[in-house]
Amino acid sequence: MTDPLIVSFPGLAAAGYRVTSPATVEYNCIAWAASRKDRWWWPSPDGYWPSGVPPVPTVQAFEATYQTLGYIRCATDNFEIDYEKVCIFAHPNGTPTHAARQLDNGRWTSKLGRNVDIEHATPQALSGRDYGQPVLFMQRPRSTWRKFLALVKRGYARFRRWLA
Amino acid sequence: MTTFALTVEGPSLGRVLSPRSKGAGQEVEVVERSLTNLWLEYYRQSRVITYREAAMAEQFQTLADKWREFTRFRSSLTEITDNPAYRAIIQLGDDVVPLLLRELQRQPEPWFAALREITGEDPVSPSQRGDMRAMTQSWLRWGRQRRLIR
User: Fold this and answer.
1) What would the pLDDT profile of A35-88 be if each residue is shown by its tens digit?
2) Nearest to B129 among A28, A47, A114 (CB)
3) For chain A, which terminal residue's Cβ has fewer other Cβ atoms within 10 angstroms, N or C?
4) Which chain A residues contact residue B132 at CB under 8 A?
5) Contacts of A65 in chain B (CB under 8 A)
């Protein structure tokens, strides 16, 4: 049987992915990247949108949304122990479509619309017809406790790879 | 002794077609024939409404399935509500409102834009925006107040 996730996101076939939560309509990827699970974030009459941010579907407005959470623009999606990162996707016409958040183990997490949350290796694994491409990376300082957690998780992930 | 039963509830079709008052006087026969014609008309109309509702429900489900298929991984409410199947559901008009509300009773989904566009009303308060469960409850309350759903 064909995996509908692989059909929509062929990049997941090579890089692999793991479903990390059941499907729900209670939140979307923009909220999930902001570490929130109680609202559907979108600049529309039916979505939540932070006050003070222009309610328009542009990459600039999405950047401003994550700026309210302390994120600033950065150059790459590389894992850095001092920073946690998010990534914004957009169609070629510039319309934002999706956001993903980097986990402490260096992999990425995405909520797929009204569907499931997944953990995936890179943001680029979700590139394609539905989400377009990653167009903007943002970062904010990681707390000392989260740095420690990140070190442990990455060390454990490397150990498992070495064992395999 | 003549016996005949009049009921305000829908009789079985067999009873409508076979009145009980054989042997009754002419007046009773006239009354019964009128009542029979009334019930036949009632049956004819109720069947037409049922077929119409069934056709509408089938059309709605086909469109809703298409919409779910194409938008299941989408986060953009703009893309979700601009989808051609979603727009076609809105084009079905007032008759589709009870079906949308029944879908919301089954599970929260972003049918709010369609309901707003068709009815011209918005029972959702600004503080509920993005909270799909709260928005669903507001629309269901609205539907119950208008007796569109139970």
Assistant:
1) 999 999 999 999 999 999 999 999 999 999 999 999 999 999 999 999 999 999
2) A47
3) N
4) 25-26, 40
5) none
**Is the predicted pLDDT of residue A1 greater than 90, yes or no?**
no
**Alpha carbon of A138 to those of A51, A65, A73, A98, A110: distances in Å?**
20, 11, 4, 14, 15
User: Cα distance from A64 to chain B (closest Cα, Å)?
Assistant: 17
Q: Hey, what amino acid is at B78?
A: T
pTM for the model stands at 0.81
**Chain A residues close to B130, C-beta within 8 Å:** 31, 39-42, 46-49
pLDDT value for B88: 97
Specify the higher pLDDT residue, A125 or A15.
A125
Q: In terms of DSSP H, where are the helices of chain A?
A: 4-8, 11-15, 29-33, 59-67, 144-163
pLDDT band of residue B20 (cuts 50, 70, 90) is low
For residue A25, which residues of chain B lie inside 8 Å, CB to CB? 107-110, 132
Under an 8 A CB cutoff, do B77 and A113 touch? Answer: no
Searching chain B, which residue's CA lies closest to the CA of residue A29? Answer: B75
Cα B29–B32–B37 angle (5° rounding)?
125
CA A84 distance to own-chain centroid:
11
Q: Say yes or no to pLDDT of B61 above 60.
A: yes
Partners of A116 in the beta sheet?
Answer: none
How far away is chain B from the Cα of A85, in angstroms, using its nearest Cα? 20
Crossing angle of the two packed helices B132-145 and B97-106, in degrees rounded to 10: 130
Question: What is the domain partition of chain A in residue ranges?
Answer: 4-163
| Best mutation target, A7, A39, A41, A44, to test chain B (most B CBs within 10 A) | A44
Per the CB < 8 A criterion, the answer to whether B113 and A45 are in contact is yes
**Cβ(A46)–Cβ(B77) below 8 Å:** yes
